[in-house]
Description:
By secondary structure, this protein is mainly beta.
Amino acid sequence: MKRFLLASLTFLLLAAGLQAAPSIPLQSGTPVSFNLAANSLTTSYFINAASSDRFLRINLDSSTAGVNIGMYLRHGTPFPDSLSGGRPISLSYIEELSHYRSIGPDNAEWLQIGRTGAEPLRAGPWYLLIVNLNLAQGTSIPASIALTATLSQSEPAAASFAVNFNAVGNAQQPCSTSEWFDNTPATPSAGNTGTTLGAQRRNAMLRAAELLAQELQSPVPINIDACWDNLGTGNSVTLAQAGPRTLVTDLPSMPRKYTWYADGPTARLSGTAFCKALDDDCSRAQIRATFNNQVDTASALGAVGFHYGFQASTTSSPDFITVALHEITHGLGFISLVEIDPDSGSDAGTKFLGTDDIFSAQLSWLQAGQLRPFNQLSDAERMQAAAAGSGLKWIDASATNSISNPRRALPAPDNYVQLYAPNPISAGSSVSHIDQDGFSGELMRPFIVGAPRTLSLARPMLDAVGWSNAETSAGIDPVPFGGFFYDPRHSGHGIEFSPVTAGGDVYVLIFYTYDAAGNPEWFLTSGRFLDGRFLPEPDVNGNSLQRFTYDPTRPSGQRQQVDASVRGRLRLDFVQAANAPTCVAAAAFSGYLAVMTFTIGDDSEQTWCMQELIPAGLRPSVDMTGTWYAGPQDSGWGLSLGSLPNAGSGGLFSILYYYDGQGKPRWALATVDALSAGSTVDLLSRNGYCRTCALPAGFPAGRDSDVGSISFSLQPAGSAGSQVSYSASWPGIEAGTFARTASPLTILSIPAADQQPQ
Ligand SMILES: [Zn+2]
């Protein structure tokens, strides 16, 4: 067991996480049985994968009534089994750390991990965390559990697309199913052996599902609710409609973060059934396909009904299997979620809930010879792109280079697959189809012509929205260079975020900000940096970001105490931050970018896009950037230092963390233009603005007041002998002076020269 004893290292109280010590290696294919107490977890089990392994299948079963078991899986490093001080770990924290999970409502959990997606099967240990949650309050039933993990070098058989002919509708989504059981006699023809209309319909639907399964080879089953409804009559009618049932973002196995995926590819990427990955109702289908029950009646299409033959229609009858393939393909994620209905007012051109979708993420608008990503356009530009005629392009390479693309030999951008973008916009068809012109024979054109029975170009296009079976390698998670970060929309507030263990994964974060009245205040946290994310664990009060108070009359080492009255939460995520809605305006920033989500008091779940204040490439060769403190004998106050880019002059930016006369945390800033021994400069306190307020015009002009002075005598970071003297006087009713003379100063964080950012 390894323990991080941070409290002795830092100028503040830091949480210390326990790391689990899994002790039971699972042998591939050999079941183990054990009992797990009620409302408890185990991190004891892991399995080592070899580089030759292609699939990992894990089954976790319990027949004990009254319990709900679940499992979480992560590669590389184990789950902690408790928080610091042995406190129980929370499920939400476990979920943050897991790469896969099977937490369905029943007790037959399974995971199947292949070499695809953002967390592909790869060599090394895969750690399990297994929970037993009691369903009944007040009981404590141990679960009898059977666990088997099986590694294999061969691919499992593709799972099926299961069709439900008895789905139940509701007022918003009517679902008539009697059409599937229509007893009107029918003559077997074109390969369909059904002897009633209903049987022929069911046979044709099942045939469509079978054809799809042959092409997609999903390792997890996909459920389709098959319905009928009156979708209108006339010479031009909607034959059918379908779409995903649910949209999901930000499962760790999804290749693109901050992006909507349809529930079909979500299940596929989750390595388990949708309901087990999302703890959803397992009777819910992932796709609902609704066919027009007027087509087979005399009133629609001039009495030309659906062709249900297994061989394609050769008449003017619409080919049911083609229609079913087309609609299910939409349901599998071949659909843009951008609102393109010109009648939708101010919503026109907006993304679904402000977030990218994976289909639209493949699109670019070709305008005046320039290709621009559809998701990075303004709402108004997206409406223009949706009506751009030949200007809406699918730029993902696998479709561009596909043998099915008739334009693949042309030079870019003429080689791209073109999407349907007529002017005026057709709200139900534009963007979400392949262009009618130039792509004859394609299944996913807006109007069915003939009877295509294969996905063709839609196959590589589905790859891009979550259906790829291509092998992937795990992405390299960003490891940032320590230093200052800020969101330009909240300029004046910021963080210093730096590693404190050499080559390790523990970071300290100080948030210097302002309260509702604009007074400077600061918060601090520390924790593990895993998978490109900083996830400080919650303390005994449930806070993962702490405010501190200071009482100089208390004994050394106890002067600083956590203020439990202030709610604080924080996480910082560097992975694909540029895709996050909050980072839209920072898309062009080239340094480290992170999404900071925090809660302080009543400022709940704020989301800021943090960028480096002084990117690594601009730092001078002698870089003092980092967290500094006096040592454990005088803990509680400290400094964030940042070397300024004007190389050679030794310029320094500093923030002093101190306390007012009532022990409240305050900060003051100082800038040294040219650092020399004994450099003395003014300490400035800034009258800022609240965290949820807009950046005031002209900020920070006229906002600084002199609260004292500070004098540095610094040796390079990591060398001994640095000193600081200062005196800071907070004004007003909380007046007090916080001062030190010739205090030793030591860098707490890893010096910049010793960091290895990625
Ligand atoms: Zn369509």
